[in-house]
Amino acid sequence: MYATDYFETLILNLARGVSATAPTTMYLALYLNDPGDAGSGTEISYAGYARQPIVFSAPAAQTGGGMAIQNTEAITFVKAQVDAGNVTHVGVLDSLTGGNMYVYGPLAEPLNVQSGVSPVIRANAVKWITSGKISAAYKAKILNLMRGVSCAGFTPYLALLNGSPEEGGAEFVGNAYERMQIAFASPAAQPGGAMMMANSAAIISPVATGTWGNMTHIAVYDAQDSGNPYMIDAANPAALMSKDKAVVYEAGALKISIN
Question: What global pTM score does this model have?
Fold first, then answer.
């Protein structure tokens, strides 16, 4: 399944201090075409049809570093009394009517809803995997938004490390090192469907008073000290941070995108 622009914006805005309130109930809807990132599309319509509540499993780690949730039970819609068309996609929304779509995706095979047919989506058929550079901690938080668990926004800080913090890497310490606060601009849609945000002002580290170490990774953390990484990426380029060196990201240079 794919995240809509609405959901991608929620995820990015966490790092702009905007908390995301989880819906009490999520609903599965049937679509006759692709809703796309805008979360539109043509929802099926026949007498008695209504979106159905969907309950997701706890986030589970996947091979390759992703994390996934899936519907825990089969979801049955009311029987159609007329031929209603071919359902090609499903969407997950935060309201029984109207509302905001969070994720959407195609069915493995279109479902021809004919008169007398009760559409059924089997258990585990609606699966969303989140991957990429978002940390494991925030992959779980993002997925849990669709399980009724709200997520607090935070002030982001840039950290410099000698490896990924999820693979044993360590953040620099001493010699005037400290995390750098980041201000992100509003997320904006990109060609290809991603939502992206970038730092709105330059990020400048303290000048090292001694060697910090070999900088191979950077991470955006949700606190000035300790806390959890939100995003982790390889430093480009990697660099030995020795005495009298500093790290500078000009405005717009540090980009985070969700797709």
Answer: 0.95
